[in-house]
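Lab notebook, entry 211. We have the chain sequence and a SMILES string for 2-acetamido-2-deoxy-beta-D-glucopyranose, and the next step in the workflow is to get a structural model of the bound complex before anyone spends time on docking refinements. Request logged below.

Task: model protein plus 2-acetamido-2-deoxy-beta-D-glucopyranose, output structure tokens.
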Amino acid sequence: MKTSTQPKLVTFKYVFLSLLLTLPILLLVLRLQPQNLRWTAAAPGNIRPPTVPNITTRGIRIRPGYTSYEVYIQRQVNKTLNPRLRQVWITRDWDRKIQVFSQFFQHLKRRSLLSNDSKSLCIGARVGQEVEALRRVGVSDSVGIDLVPYPPLVVKGDFHNQPFGNDTFDFEFSNVFDHALLPDKFVAEIERTLKPRGICVLHVAVCEADG
Ligand SMILES: *[C@@H]1O[C@H](CO)[C@@H](O)[C@H](O)[C@H]1NC(C)=O
Ligand SMILES: *[C@@H]1O[C@H](CO)[C@@H](O)[C@H](O)[C@H]1NC(C)=O
Ligand SMILES: *[C@@H]1O[C@H](CO)[C@@H](O)[C@H](O)[C@H]1NC(C)=O
Ligand SMILES: *[C@@H]1O[C@H](CO)[C@@H](O)[C@H](O)[C@H]1NC(C)=O
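Result returned:
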């Protein structure tokens, strides 16, 4: 029995080895695909590509099917203003989400990634549960941005074009990176507004159904 499985194993080894050897080349080819080049080359400030292809960044699928930046923004605004969802966010979800966020931020504080003195921004904060959580755990200088403001926790702002100057924040948090139309721009804006040695935490759902 053992001898009959032996050749299979050897074959498998070779297949595996050749796969291993071709992987770097494969990755290189994938990186050089015109679609990827196009997004890498997108200049900061230029946030209006004529048509928007589906984008995949290291396995994370980014917002498929939008024909223009305006349609995308309108769609996001519509979603944020949905009265039924909004009601849920500020009632049923409110305490539970704040508790979860608070625990998460406490954890970051214990790891010295966040402190009471950190000037903090929550990106795509909707009704600002994460901002409220930050304030409750003692990070008092915290604010959120979203397309629709929710004062006093959330001010109006597009994460592709943050309404803040360079080097403003010590800490930035977002769980909507996978909602970005232009992920490069999303990250570039965080890099721009984060102070040197500032901390950015992105919470990303991988392999989740489209939402
Ligand atoms: C983008 O994805 C959607 C659904 O996932 C699909 O219907 C559409 O054909 C795709 N568009 C491109 C340009 O690949
Ligand atoms: C947004 O909602 C308005 C009115 O509720 C509707 O007319 C419009 O088509 C919607 N736009 C998108 C992109 O969903
Ligand atoms: C941070 O703020 C919290 C809540 O106000 C407080 O309990 C804690 O002592 C503060 N920590 C420091 C190091 O000042
Ligand atoms: C802000 O940062 C961007 C990107 O790093 C840079 O291009 C721009 O010149 C900076 N603006 C100011 C006012 O320093």
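Notes for the group: Residues 2-32 form one domain. Worth checking against the assay data. The pocket of 2-acetamido-2-deoxy-beta-D-glucopyranose (ligand 1) is lined by residues 53-54, 64-65 (CB under 6 Å).
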